[in-house]
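User: Reviewer 2 asked us to show a designed sequence for the structure in our supplementary figure. I'm pasting the structure tokens here. Could you produce the per-position amino acids so we can include them in the response letter?
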């Protein structure tokens, strides 16, 4: 699968602490959801429940098609945040709530904003609130916390 769609969103440079402000908006990311993404995400996360890879089973269960599992959504949203901030930051936590499913043939639109920024003896942190919507409505909402990587971690990247 081509990753060309991500070229504009990959950060080879890292955001600096001073460049991040509360209420900063992350760039919107639109991602096509196809059957391959749904099935490969389920396989990669070892979620073999048939609604994620067997169309007939999903339809017998009442869904129009296979649908994305929560682990794939979690991974996509974590990637959305970490591609924004760059390699100088570590994902400290990521939590989300699923809403309407992602079915093949839809577009998932991710957006986010800096909810808060703080430092303490343990380091510098930024909390990102994010959401993703599709043709049926809100797919997920969540919060991610990124921690500025130690300077020796940043130089190794």
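Assistant: Here is a per-position design you can include in the supplement:
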């Amino acid at each position: 699968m081509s990753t060309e769609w991500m070229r504009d969103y990959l950060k080879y440079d890292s955001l600096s602490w001073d460049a991040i402000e509360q209420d900063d908006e992350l760039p919107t990311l639109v991602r096509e959801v196809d059957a391959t993404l749904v099935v490969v995400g389920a396989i990669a996360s070892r979620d073999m429940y048939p609604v994620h890879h067997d169309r007939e089973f999903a339809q017998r269960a009442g869904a129009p098609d296979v649908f994305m599992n929560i682990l794939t959504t979690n991974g996509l949203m974590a990637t959305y945040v970490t591609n924004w901030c760059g390699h100088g930051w570590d994902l400290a936590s990521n939590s989300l709530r699923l809403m309407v499913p992602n079915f093949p043939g839809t577009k998932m639109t991710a957006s986010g904003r800096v909810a808060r920024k703080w430092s303490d003896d343990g380091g510098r942190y930024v909390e990102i609130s994010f959401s993703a919507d599709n043709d049926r409505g809100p797919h997920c909402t969540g919060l991610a916390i990124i921690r500025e990587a130690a300077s020796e971690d940043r130089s190794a990247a």
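For the response letter, you might also mention the following. The two ends are 25 Å apart (CA to CA). The longest helix spans residues 70-85.
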